[in-house]
C-alpha cells in the first residue's frame, strides 16, 4: 500500500467536529473507518468560532458564515473553498441546501460524487418548493447515495426515485464496553424497588421528552432519568415542579462520556419519544441495546424504526401519543419476562447489524470503488 496514491475524500456539511450532532457523528465515524495510510480526508464546514485545523488525520477547513436561515449557514467563503476543491470523492451531506447551491456555483473538481441523505428537509416546505427541481438534478448527479437505513428510501418525499443509487450503511458501535459496577449499583440503590427509565439527548422540541414527562404522571413504581441539556431544560424543570413529579423524574444534566455506560447498564428501559423525522436514526438506541435494554421509540418510518424493531427489541408508539407511551411503559415495567426477552433480542440485533467492524468494512469497500 505504500506505493499506492491515497484516495482523497472531501466531506461537506454546515457544521463538523467539535460541533456534535447526528450528521457530524456520522462524518466522524466515516473518517475514523477509513485508514489514514490509504485515505486523505478533508471536511469543508462552517464556523465563526473555531479555526481550520487537523484533527486525527482529518483536515477541517472552516468557513465564516454571515447568518443562519432555515437551518442553513449562508457562507460565501464556503463557496470559495468548494471552488478550490480537487478530490477523488466529494461527499455531500444532506439536508444542507446552501451546500447544494454552493456546489452548483463553485463547480468543484471530483471523480465521484457521494451524497449522504440523512433525512428529508423538515419544516421548511415553503422554501423548498422552489428548489425541488434543483435538488433532483443534484441527486441525479450523485454516483452513490448513502443512507443509514432502508426505511428512508421508501418513506422519503424524493428519495424513492433514486433507489437504484442508494447504499445502506448504518451507524456502528463497538460491541465491547466498560462499566463501573460500583457506580451501577449506586445508581440502582438510589431507586430501590423501582424500574429505571432512561433518556439522553438535547432538550429540544423534536426529541419529544415533554411527552415522556407527561406519561410519568400515570406511571407508578418507576423513575425517569433524563440526561442532557438544551433550550427546553428550564421548562422541563418547571413542568416537573408544577406536576409534583420530583420523586419520579430526575433531570440529570449533561453526562460525561465515562459515566454514560453506567446509566445504560443501571436502567431497565430506554425511552426515545422523538416526534419528527428530524430524528433520523438515533445512535443512543444502539448504545442502550448494546447493554441488552429494550427500547420504546416512536413510529417515524425512518432509521429510528430500523434500529429498534416493534415487538422484537422493544415497543413502538405513535409520536405525541401520551396514552400509547404510558401503556408501553407500563407493559414493560410490569412484565419482567417480556422486558428481558426484548433486551436479549436488542443485544443480538446490535451484534448482527451494527457492530463497528462490519460497518468499517462496508465504508472501506464503498470508498475503494473509485
CATH superfamily of the largest domain: Glycogen Phosphorylase B
State mean pLDDT (0 to 100 scale): 92
* Strand portion: 15-25%
Q: How many domains comprise the coordinates?
A: 2
Rounded to the nearest angstrom, the distance between the terminal CA atoms is 16 Å
The low-pLDDT segments are: none
Number of DSSP strands? 16
Radius of gyration, rounded? 21 Å
Can you offer a commentary on this structure?
The chain is of the alpha/beta class and 370 residues long. The chain is built from 15 helices and 16 strands. The chain has two domains: 7-172 and 355-367, Rossmann fold, CATH 3.40.50; 181-353, Glycogen Phosphorylase B (Rossmann fold, 3-Layer(aba) Sandwich). It has helices at 22-33, 76-83, 97-106, 125-128, 132-141, 151-154, 181-190, 209-215, 233-242, 257-266, 283-290, 303-307, 322-333, 336-353, 356-367, and strands spanning 7-12, 39-46, 53-55, 58-63, 67-69, 72-74, 86-94, 109-117, 144-147, 166-168, 195-200, 222-227, 249-253, 269-271, 295-298, 314-317. The strands form three sheets. An eight-stranded mixed beta sheet has the order 3-4-2-1-7-8-9-10, with helices on both faces. Helix 2 crosses helix 3 (97-106) and helix 8 (209-215) crosses helix 13. The model has no long low-confidence stretch (mean pLDDT 92).
Amino acid at each position: 500500500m505504500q506505493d499506492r496514491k491515497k484516495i482523497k475524500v472531501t466531506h461537506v456539511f454546515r457544521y463538523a467536529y467539535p460541533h456534535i450532532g447526528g450528521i457530524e457523528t456520522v462524518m466522524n465515524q466515516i473518517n475514523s473507518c477509513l485508514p489514514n495510510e490509504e485515505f486523505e480526508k478533508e471536511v469543508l464546514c462552517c464556523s465563526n468560532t473555531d479555526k481550520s485545523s487537523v484533527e486525527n488525520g482529518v483536515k477541517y477547513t472552516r468557513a465564516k458564515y454571515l447568518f443562519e436561515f432555515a437551518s442553513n449557514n449562508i457562507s460565501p467563503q464556503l463557496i470559495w473553498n468548494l471552488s478550490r476543491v480537487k478530490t477523488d470523492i466529494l461527499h455531500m451531506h444532506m439536508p444542507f441546501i446552501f451546500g447544494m447551491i454552493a456546489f452548483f456555483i463553485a463547480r468543484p473538481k471530483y471523480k465521484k460524487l457521494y451524497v449522504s441523505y440523512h433525512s428529508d428537509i423538515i419544516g421548511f416546505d415553503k422554501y423548498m418548493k422552489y428548489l425541488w427541481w434543483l435538488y433532483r438534478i443534484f441527486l441525479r448527479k450523485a454516483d452513490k447515495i448513502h443512507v443509514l437505513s432502508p426505511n428512508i428510501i421508501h418513506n422519503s418525499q424524493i428519495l424513492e426515485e433514486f433507489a437504484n443509487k442508494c447504499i445502506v450503511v448504518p451507524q456502528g458501535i463497538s460491541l465491547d464496553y466498560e462499566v463501573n459496577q460500583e457506580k451501577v449499583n449506586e445508581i440502582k440503590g438510589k431507586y430501590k424497588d423501582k424500574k429505571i427509565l432512561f433518556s439522553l439527548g438535547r432538550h429540544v422540541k423534536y426529541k419529544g421528552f415533554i411527552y415522556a414527562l407527561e406519561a410519568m404522571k400515570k406511571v407508578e413504581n418507576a423513575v425517569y432519568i433524563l440526561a442532557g441539556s438544551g433550550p427546553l431544560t428550564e421548562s422541563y424543570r418547571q413542568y416537573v415542579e408544577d406536576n409534583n413529579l420530583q420523586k419520579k423524574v430526575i433531570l440529570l444534566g449533561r453526562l460525561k462520556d465515562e459515566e454514560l455506560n453506567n446509566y445504560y447498564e443501571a436502567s431497565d428501559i430506554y425511552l426515545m419519544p422523538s416526534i419528527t423525522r428530524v430524528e433520523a436514526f438515533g445512535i443512543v438506541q444502539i448504545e442502550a441495546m448494546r447493554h441488552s435494554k429494550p427500547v420504546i421509540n416512536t413510529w417515524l418510518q425512518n432509521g429510528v424504526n430500523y434500529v429498534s424493531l416493534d415487538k422484537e427489541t422493544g415497543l413502538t408508539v405513535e409520536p405525541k401519543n401520551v396514552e400509547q407511551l404510558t401503556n408501553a411503559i407500563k407493559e414493560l415495567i410490569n412484565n419482567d419476562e417480556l422486558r428481558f426477552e426484548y433486551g436479549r433480542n436488542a443485544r443480538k440485533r446490535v451484534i448482527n447489524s451494527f457492530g463497528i467492524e462490519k460497518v468499517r468494512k462496508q465504508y472501506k469497500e464503498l470508498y475503494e470503488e473509485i
